[in-house]
Amino acid sequence: MTTIDGLHNFRDTGGIALEGGGAVRSGVLYRSDALGALTPAGVDAFAETPIGVVVDFRTPEERQMSPDRLPASRPVQLVELPLLEGAIGQLAGDAVQSASRDTAALTAAMEQLPTLGDLYLGMLQHGAEVFAATARLVAASREDTPTAVLVHCTAGKDRTGVATALLLRAAGADRAAVITDYASSAGNLDGAWSEGMYAMLTQFGIPLTPALQTLVAGSPASEIERALDWIESEHGEAAAYLQSGGLTDDELSALRTRLAG
């Protein structure tokens, strides 16, 4: 597996099992945490990948705090498609502002934060056009030039996880395999990344409750299962959901060709 110095949750979705046999094609769709911590060696390694399009789901405030670092040695298109749901830091900050500095009040405010599953349903209810636009970029990618797509948010697990699950399921990826990929993010983020995030939150006086820890660095399989259940209940399948956001039949066919061959 390719590693990029400075990234903790980077991976190619290639190799994920398809329902009818075979696997998702490598070098087409990548996922990652934010690119602001890329080292010089990481930037060079990134330039060697086939990635030519970076989709950033973060809000303008998040991007301002940690702008992406991209190679200057070749063109990379940056596409900003913000999704408010999943901006955990902003949600926690808003909760702090709405409560007093009293520890009990802050803890109570933290406990009122939505669960990951709630956030995912909010993304799906409001973000069909964003997810369809992402699918369109993957559908338009080519083999003969660096146009593979990388999707990312801050941790690369929530907004990125929902988007990746949608694209993979629409292309025919096995549901259990998609859930396993989603759940692997927690292990990738454990250690330096999660400890750094926890330290930043506590520095601002935010109590580190178990619920907040899950929001920041967790990826329980049950949460993406809930999102997939909602998609199937409301739209029948991921492909129909993406089409509700504007993806055309031709674009869906191209998406499947690129990801599943």
TrEMBL record:
Residues annotated as transmembrane: none
Record-linked Gene3D superfamilies: Protein tyrosine phosphatase superfamily (3.90.190.10)
Signal peptide feature range: none
InterPro entries documented for this protein: Prot-tyrosine_phosphatase-like, Tyr/Ser_Pase_IphP-type, Tyr_Pase_AS, Tyr_Pase_dom
Domain Tyrosine specific protein phosphatases: 129-168
SUPFAM superfamilies tied to this protein: (Phosphotyrosine protein) phosphatases II (SSF52799)
Pfam families cross-referenced by the UniProt entry: Y_phosphatase3
Protein name per UniProt: Tyrosine-protein phosphatase
